[in-house]
Design brief:
There is one protein chain. The chain has a three-stranded mixed beta sheet with strand order 1-2-3, with helices on one face. Strand 1 (2-5), helix 1 and strand 2 form a beta-alpha-beta unit. Helices cover 12% and strands 16% of the residues. The protein contains one helix and three strands; from the N terminus they run E-H-E-E. It is rod-shaped, with a radius of gyration of 29 Å. By secondary structure, it is an alpha+beta fold. The longest helix is centred in the first third of the chain and has 9 residues, at 13-21.
Length: 74
């Protein structure tokens, strides 16, 4: 575990980020002894956009018409 005081001038944020990426536990401590953990967070998944395929396909006018050979399945 890597523990750093928030007022320590000898650390670089980039070094702490690289340590967290390697899986090390990085804890930052304040003068009031509050502790904060630096962890890598996965990027949020992109939300699907409604209507993104609009105009890319079409249905025939008789789409809902009964199928002649389908009677034996009903």
């Amino acid at each position: 575990m890597l523990q750093i005081n928030v007022h320590d001038k000898n650390f670089k944020l980039d070094d702490l980020i690289q340590a967290a990426k390697r899986g090390e536990e990085v804890v930052i401590v304040t003068d009031e002894q509050e502790r904060f953990k630096l962890v890598q967070v996965e990027a949020p998944k992109r939300l699907r956009k409604l209507g993104a395929a609009k105009g890319q396909f079409s249905m025939s006018d008789d789409f809902n018409a009964p199928i002649d050979d389908f009677d034996e399945y009903t």
